[in-house]
């Protein structure tokens, strides 16, 4: 994985990331409701190992869970902590690579890896390493929740772009809007793609353009479930948005027995 470029992508995006949502606070609440229903217990110890600016972590903390958030981007985790504090929440955060998580074994009831974060890892070796770390974090029969884009469908169509999204500017100026969209450039292998994230910001009657770039691996559902099984997870099932209310497909699994067990 081009670790530095991924961290740089999200460092640069951290202050504006909420603009991809029409209403970030509403999305925080809606996603937390869906994840809480899958967690199925109160006050779970939850690790969000790709917390970004806190969309899932803050929502789960609002639901009463004891949440720790990590992310490769230092600026994103710093903003997550600020946003949580602004809402009167306790959210421990740290900048960390999901392949090398800085916690002892078996510390959490649930590990969340949402927002299509795992596909930033571009090889089977790296995906296995991350899933093995998530397995290490979990108590016996602990819950794994991983969300990705609907890659089975996307691999059939290989889209070149996403529709533009139009939202009010961050400072709330009346009538001003920010426009975001993505261009996707598929590699020759048909599985990896370079993403260009465009953000058009109003600037004195004109537009200022920001472009950020990163690469993803379009991991199909069967392949990702197979890698999770190799990493020590059992009871693997994909739960779809129409079933869960979560905005992306979710791989739901349980930590299997360790080799020592």
Automatic annotation (TrEMBL):
SUPFAM superfamilies: S-adenosyl-L-methionine-dependent methyltransferases. The keyword Methyltransferase applies. Pfam families: Methyltransf_25. Residues 46-142 form the Methyltransferase domain. Keywords: Methyltransferase, Transferase. InterPro entries: Methyltransf_25 (IPR041698), Methyltransf_Superfamily (IPR050508), SAM-dependent_MTases_sf (IPR029063). GO terms for molecular function: methyltransferase activity. It comes from the Bacteria. GO terms for biological process: methylation. This is Methyltransferase domain-containing protein.
